[in-house]
Amino acid sequence: MPVDARARLAEAQAALVTALAGHAAAPPGFDVDRIHAAAASLANKRRRAVARAWPVLAESLGDRFAERFEGYAQSAPLPRLGGPLADGRAFLRWLEAMGEMPEACRLPALAVDLRYRSVATGLVPRRGFAFKTTVLSTQRRLIVGLRLPWLDGHWVSLPLSWGLRPVHTPPRTVPP
Q: Is the pTM above the cut of 0.90?
């Protein structure tokens, strides 16, 4: 196959993939309705995979899960590494940036962060030491997670009131 034909084929394939991901219109010569149907099917498959990998997330968001995930998926490509676990973790970061991360997802996210390291292309297994924290505001708890090479993951829950109360010192009076 000539180099020019390969370049045109690669361009057409890239345009098709972009359309199937829902980020562009159907390329010329393709049935627009079928491209939209295939794109919707792939988006549903992606959403269901994240819901299976992160059941607490799907349960916490309830009816809003599909709508919120669609908003995320339109702005974020599918991670190359880590599959649905990485996609769900990226979705949680997106929700956190929007101020909508469900509190019930903080512990599962901490567990993933102790075992995996986030990179631009997804998640990779963590090696060595890891130290992560999260706050459960409804329970008023600070969760400290620790991963050591010989200890997969361990966490400690501390009450937020412990050592964090404002200190009030009475004013000093100087005797006359």
A: no
